């Protein structure tokens, strides 16, 4: 029994706003302790901002893609070729995420696309508010494509929704077939897997059938395409996929 | 190290709800299917909470089976 008020060790009441408090009168320093119900998702703020980005894209019928891979899988090389070869068909703008430097921005700019560098500093992934700031600077036109090149990392970017229409994961043949099994969150989150650098297949031990099987094991719904961003082999399938997504982005607004 | 970004969100959620009360304990639910390491959250929490109302608060992490990633409850010191 509590000496102060005659209640049990703990008593509970509900405030007018629905917050439930329970008090113990035997806390350190004699402070009564209240338990506050929060029930808040840790990613609630990011998800709300991502939803805002998604609405922004939808209102302008912009196709936004979140490109993810480990460092060196060929995201920037793929974008360079895509921008050069699809010039005249689509307006493509790029948000470049990197921890430091503007090297990739300079490469994309040289390929002929408007680009905004988003340096994450110590951050290992892009978050929805960084994308919102990047968009304010990039100002992509109606019916364009925004390629969001995430920080090279197969772990953290999978958790953070940016408001994109689809996540694309790029895996190069120099990396090993077991990546989808080792990093299941990334491959589960992606709609499309691009197997890049297939021009190097004669020189590496990489089993295409096995990587596809591993990918489908963690994500049966994911599409898988094989290409070389360097030589252009297989690139047309990627352009076909892009066109389908771009068409769908234009139809989604009033659906 | 996405745990650092998540911990910053946790401390922000807690401090906003705490108003001006000191936070004594925070309870989280972290599902097995999330790629979040509880040890890393604990490590970050001590650092991120420094200088806030949650400094020194005890972190209580419940492992659940799904994709939960929640701040469920906290204990605050009520003004006497």
Count of β-strands of chain A: 10
Largest interface: A-B, 33 and 30 residues
What profile does the largest beta sheet of chain B have? 3 strands, mixed
Distance between the termini of chain A: 62 Å
The average pLDDT value of chain B, as a whole number, equals: 93
**Total count of domains of chain A:** 2
Please indicate the percent range of residues of chain A in DSSP E strands (runs of 2 or more).
Answer: 15-25%
Look at the helices and sheets of chain B and give the structural class: alpha+beta
**H/E series of chain B, N to C?**
HEHEE
At the fold tier of CATH, the topology name of chain B is hypothetical protein PF0899 fold
Short description:
With 255 residues, chain A is of the alpha/beta class.
Description:
The complex is a heterodimer of chains A (255) and B (80). By secondary structure, chain A is an alpha/beta fold. Chain A has two domains: 1-39, no CATH class; 44-251, P-loop containing nucleotide triphosphate hydrolases (Rossmann fold). Chain A is built from eight helices and ten strands. A seven-stranded parallel beta sheet of chain A has the order 6-5-7-4-8-9-10, sandwiched between helices. A three-stranded antiparallel beta sheet of chain A has the order 1-2-3, with no helix packed on it. In chain A, helix 7 links the parallel strand 9 (192-196) and strand 10 (223-226). The N and C termini of chain A lie far apart (62 Å). Mean pLDDT of chain A is 88; it is low at 1-9. Chain B is of the alpha+beta class and 80 residues long. Chain B has a single domain, classed as hypothetical protein PF0899 fold (2-Layer Sandwich), CATH 3.30.2320.50. Chain B has two helices and three strands; from the N terminus they run αβαββ. Chain B has helices at residues 2-18, 38-49, and strands at 23-31, 58-64, 69-77. In chain B, strands 2-1-3 form a three-stranded mixed beta sheet. In chain B, helix 1 packs across helix 2 (38-49). The N and C termini of chain B lie far apart (40 Å). The interface between A and B is medium-sized, with 33 and 30 residues. Strand 3 of chain A pairs antiparallel with strand 3 (69-77) of chain B, so a sheet runs across the interface.
